[in-house]
Structures are given as structure tokens and as C-alpha cells.
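User: C-alpha cells for NBD/HSP70 family sugar kinase, please.
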Amino acid sequence: MAIRPTIRTDLNRSAILAQLGANGPASRAELARVLAVSPALMTQLVKDLIADGLVIELEQAPSSGGRPARMLGLATSSGRAIGVKVVADHVAFVEVGIDGRVLRSASEPFDASSSTYLAELIARISDFIADGTGATLLGVGVGVPGTVDLPGDGIVDAPQLGWTGVELGRALRRALDLPVIVENNVNALAVAERLFGLGRAHDNFLVVTIGTGVGAGIVVDGSVLRAASGGAGEIGHIPISDDGPRCSCGNDGCLEAHIGEAALVARGRELGVIAARGVITELHAAAESGDERAIGIFRDAGRLLGRTLAGVVHTIDPALVVVLGEGTLSWRHWSHGFEPAFRAHLLRHRRSLPVEVETWQDESWAQGAAALVLATPFDSAGASGDQGRLIRARLVEQAGRS
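Assistant: Done. Predicted C-alpha cells:
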């Protein structure tokens, strides 16, 4: 039986490149400590990267005793990736270096329901690429709010966009003539957290997003969990009530139908907190000004999220929960309901589980999509398929030029 390489190893190799790119040369011991892997595994990972021509050994570090450590550095620092975040009404772009640092960003209006949405999306991505830095482009990562069969294939089902069975990956590859990786946008954020964020110190963690929708990226033993059809983590569609509001997925009473942005706005209009055409920013402003009705809307949403998330925690047993998304702008109001409900519904020994809420920027979604490209060079036998091999070839070629 053929044994498939684990995504954990793939992400660890990518994380080494990201760490060296962001912070400069480091020893094997330093990398093992920062990335929370064993010295033995780090030795093997570095050996593979050196053999691929992606990492080089530099001078020895000064020693106060014992054998001096060999410093490691990148063979190339000019590779780049494009990340694209697609939502119903706009597209966000970033260009990142091999260390994940954002080099430039942009946002353009977009109508996902238009009859020409695919041509429009291709044109906007092409324009952003054309304005690039000129360094070697490894590939394009695209994050979408829906289910993706395999990142290397990129067939998308996204109720929020009104897309069913859209062959997005193939269309973009044909038009752009570049490797393209397509993934659920929250899974993409989980990859970014593993490479560049709080997840570097944890093999098991949960990324939860609140905003237009509600979703989760699940990292278990260092791997982003996709499961049978790529739909793992759709916590927004956990049923909360039998006769609740209709969800974008077509079912009634989903968590997202209760606490997604549209549901909060609808409740604000119903209570007269905001006008009939009011939007989420106005509801947030009302809560900030002390309107008890607005504060109550966010508190109730936090309570539902906390109860539901406690069940998810009991199912996957993460060491950390990271909360992200546009909704975190109002987190201090969500937290009044979230914290007591979440802690009270956890088993006693889990009640100290850390929950970190990260400062939100719209480009974070697109940065997560770009991280897909940086994570796939070592996934040639995995979900990225031929696209992973093409990205790897570009990275190795660029290293050979340096």
C-alpha cells in the first residue's frame, strides 16, 4: 500500500522557508524550537530542503562552548505568490513574498451573481498580476466561502456566491497559464496561521471566523482537516433550531442563519436599532454608543456561538482557538455572551482553553489564500496534485538562478 506524505510534513517544510524568510538565518535548533517540532524531524526536513536547493548552510554561529551551530538561510528570497479572496460583492488581492509578508494589496468590486462573473474575475486577477513586482510568480491561491473538492482541481460549491459545481480552478489555470490552488477561505486562513501566526506553536488548533458567514478551519496533528469532500469545518451549518430562519444553504435554523451578518442586521432592523436599509457598521456603532438593544444582539450571538463551539471543542480537542473575521470588530460585545456560555458548556478540565481574537484586516483572507501557494510545493502527492508539482518546480528553478 502506498503511503501518502502527510500535510503536516508539507506545512513544516513551508514553515521553515517562511521563518527563514521573515527572520533571517537560524540554526536547526532555533527552528525546531520556534516551529515546535522535534530536533530529529527538523534535521530530516532541513536535509530535504538542502537537497532540493531551497535552503543553504551558512557560516557557523558563535559558540560559548560545545560544537558551534550551522546557520541556515534561504537559497532564494524572490519567489512570490498571489492571493485572492472572493466574496459576493468584491474581490481582495495580495502579493506576498516567500516569507508571507504582504508586498502590495488591492480590492475591486465584483458581482458573483453576474452572468459574466467568471470573465470578470479572470480580468481582475490578470490586472493585479500585471502590476506585480516582476519577481518569479509561484502561483495563485484563491479562497472562496464554500466547499472545494480538491485544492488542485478547484470545483466550488458556494451558496453565499450562488455557485454550484463551478470549475473555477480549471478556468483560472487556462486563462492565467499559472498554477492555481483553490480552497475554502477558512481553511486557507488555517494554513496561514500554521505558517505565520499563532498556530506555529501548536499542532492542534481551531480557527473560527465570524462575519458574513460562520466557519472553521481545523488543524489536527499539524494537518488542515478537509475530510471526505473538502467540507470539514462548516460549523455555520450546524442546526441550532428546528424552526429557525432560512439559511443561505437552503436549510432552516443553521448557526449562520442565527448569527451571521445578515441575521444580526435583520434583528437590528426588527428592533428599530438601525433603519430599514441599515448595515452592520451602523449596528456596531449603536453598540459602541451604548444602545442596550444593539449590545444585546451581539451578546445573544456570542452566547449561541459559545455553546456551539463548546461542542466542537469536545469533538476535536484543540489546544487553541483563534477567532478571526469581519465580525471581530464588535468582539467586545460578542464576548459578553460568548465567554460565560463557552466556559460553562466545556468539560471542567477544558475550561481554561485559550481563545485568541486577532485584529482583523480584509486582506487577511487574501493572505491566507496566498499561503496556500507557499504550502503546496511539498504536497506533490496530496490534494494539490499537479498544481503542487508545478509550484515546486517554479520554486526550485528560482532557487537555481540565485
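User: Anything notable?

Assistant: The chain has a mean pLDDT of 87.
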